[in-house]
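User: For my dataset I need records formatted as: sequence, then structure tokens, nothing else. Please produce one.
Assistant:
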Amino acid sequence: MTDDMAQENTELRRKRLRYRSWHRGIKEMDILLGQFADQFLAEMDDAALDVYENLISHNDQELYAWMTGRKPVPTQIDHELFRRIAAAHHVQL
């Protein structure tokens, strides 16, 4: 694959992830993830996009409970990107 094709695929992936971030199941997660995606997806490399895609594959109720501290964050989720999303919305974990 050429560099141009790889870059185009990454851009399409970012667009898809942005859409998924803004069209969740609950409005609170639309706002948390959508605003984060608008601000930071463009600077993320493929490895970070992998982590983000895995994170948003979880259901909204779980994500919201983890983001708000209502439930402890599982170790497989508690990584730098998750903390960055929380920090972008001034959530203390």
